[in-house]
Design brief:
Glutaredoxin; single chain; about 40% helix; 5-stranded mixed β-sheet
Length: about 170
Amino acid sequence: MIKSHLLNQIIQPLAFAPIAFALFSGIGFTFGSTEAQTSEEKPLTGVINRKTLDGKHFPWMAAGRATAKAEFAQHPSETAQVRTALSQTDVEVYFGSWCGDSQEHVPPFLALVNAPKSLKLIALDRHKTFPGFVNSAKIERLPTFIFRRNGNEIGRITETPTKSILEDTLAILK
């Protein structure tokens, strides 16, 4: 009797461990759903163009750009300096469509960037990869903005800007 009671005390909590893990780790369960996968369930991956992010699957993009444009209007001199310097700079943006930091910082950056010398948007999955991707830039956190001149890296913003997208980009480009 004592053995079975002790056994129940050990086994019973273990039966609920997967459910507790799912609840506290952000994993959800869906029962009987026939809805199509959202962009968060199947992340955008690969080298993409800006228009891809303007679609209905990425509402955070339009909202973030609108907020950023209002901020940049309050700092016209700094915004103009960044845009001028970007015309001579290659930019690579590594991000995840599923990533909260990417959803927060990529829209303002794209609102700031009018016409860089070149802009490369690379969408990565939760493992920070996609088929055929070679991590030569050593991407560890998302988003990562890499700025290059004449093929040489002059700076990067990783995950979260120190001050703001505008101020950090200006500091790199000076």
